Amino acid sequence: MTVPEERLKMVVEILRGFGARRVLLFGSYARDPEHARDLDLAVEGIPLNTVVAADVAAERVLDVPLDLVSMEENPEFFCIVSKERRVLYEEGSPR
Questions:
Q1: CA 63 to mean position of chain CA atoms
Q2: Cα–Cα distance, 15 to 49 (Å, whole number)
Q3: How far is the C-alpha of 63 from the C-alpha of 80, rounded, in Å?
Q4: What is the pLDDT of residue 32?
Q5: How far is Cα 68 from Cα 7, in angstroms, rounded to an integer?
Q6: C-alpha–C-alpha distance, residues 10 and 14, integer Å
């Protein structure tokens, strides 16, 4: 399973619209996109009351299964995944 880079950029923009200050790609897709069954994204900055809506909006654009992890909801897991990840967006960094 591969997702075009343009779709990933669209998802980042959607997540930024929900308040994301950082978007990280992790998990099987980050290691081996060809054999991944889903896409795992970790986000920082999205208010807890809108995480589900952000997940649904992003998954519609991706058209593949998505697991969205919120740092605010699960800081311990976020710390673990942030060690083995690809930064898709970080506030203040050039795009």
A1: 14
A2: 14
A3: 26
A4: 87
A5: 16
A6: 6
Q: Tokens at residue 20, please? A: 């994301």
- In angstroms, the CA 12 to CA 66 distance is 13
How high is the pLDDT of residue 30?
87
* The pLDDT of residue 94: 67
Residue 38 located in a structural domain: yes
Q: What would the two tokens of residue 16 be?
A: 């930024």
Q: What is the mean pLDDT of each run of 10 residues along the chain (95 residues)?
A: 90 97 92 89 95 95 91 84 86 75
CATH number reported for the structural domain that contains residue 71 in this entry: 3.30.460.10
Closest CA to 70 of 13, 22, 7: 22
Residue 95 lies inside a defined structural domain of this protein: no
pTM comes to 0.89
Residue 73 dihedral angles phi and psi, to the nearest 5°: -85, -35
Residue 7, judged by CB atoms within 10 A of its CB (0-12, 13-18, 19+), counts as middle
